[in-house]
Design brief:
The protein is mostly helical. It has 10 helices and 2 strands. Helix 4 packs antiparallel against helix 5, helix 7 packs across helix 8 and helix 8 runs antiparallel to helix 9.
């Protein structure tokens, strides 16, 4: 199947070849018999393998500790909320870019077919990754004296921030010279600017709700369109 092309290095045949070259004390195993006896189909094998690879136990153990630290910055230990945001996104983006699982996920997404098991593995991975962040965001919003504005849920809020972070991570991996982040959290931190814009858009002081969604707020202050000084000639002359 063409959509498995990105998984060639994970196939049972590739693993069989590697197992033939194992050095003692590991047991060399020739052939793909063990795989054929365990999984009914090649797709079943790959789906199980992906489920294992994206399991939470395969995350960098240090990431969990670092996540708590970044959460502490956001909630209380950093006096300036803006500085805390810059610092947190700076280190989070670097952590994601170091993760082999993030790079593997990019390959999986690019090669996924609409009906294969990759989507389930990715969905479960996102659910596990976003749950702790949702708790951090809820605690941060309360501790900093804010509330979500009308029309946005904490799940949507977390997904927006995750999409921004991962999008910048992909760009940074592909073009490290693009100045997505600088040498420090406050230097050329384009990701920090984007996160700050989201916070400014979707947070309001607690107890002072405008009662407006972001769209309504935007339309409220949007100036009326000006008459065009020059018309566009569609005649083709």
């Amino acid at each position: 199947k063409p959509y498995w092309s990105g998984l060639r290095f994970l196939t049972e045949r590739a693993l069989s070849r590697e197992m033939e070259n194992l050095e003692p004390p590991f047991l060399r195993q020739k052939g793909d018999g063990p795989y054929r006896a365990t999984w009914a189909s090649h797709d079943d094998y790959l789906n199980d393998l992906l489920t294992f690879l994206f399991h939470a136990m395969n995350y960098d153990p240090q990431y969990g500790a670092d996540l708590e630290t970044r959460g502490d910055w956001l909630i209380s230990t950093e006096a300036s909320f803006a500085n805390a945001l810059d610092r947190a996104i700076f280190h989070e983006l670097q952590a994601i870019c170091r993760m082999p699982l993030f790079r593997l996920q990019l390959i999986m997404v690019a090669t996924a077919d609409r009906n294969d098991g990759i989507h389930d593995a990715i969905a479960n991975n996102y659910a596990g990754a976003l749950d702790p962040w949702k708790k951090i965001y809820e605690a941060t919003i309360a501790a900093r004296g804010y509330q979500l504005r009308k029309g946005i849920t904490i799940e949507q809020f977390a997904n927006i921030l995750a999409a921004i972070t991962e999008g910048f991570a992909v760009h940074h991996l592909g073009d490290p010279a693009a100045n997505i982040i600088g040498a420090s959290p406050t230097e050329d931190n384009l990701a920090g600017m984007a996160v700050l814009a989201v916070m400014n858009s979707f947070l309001e002081p607690a107890g002072e709700s405008s009662g407006l969604t972001l769209r309504e707020e935007f339309e409220r202050y949007a100036p009326a369109p000006r008459a065009a000084e020059h018309t566009i000639d569609h005649s083709g002359d």
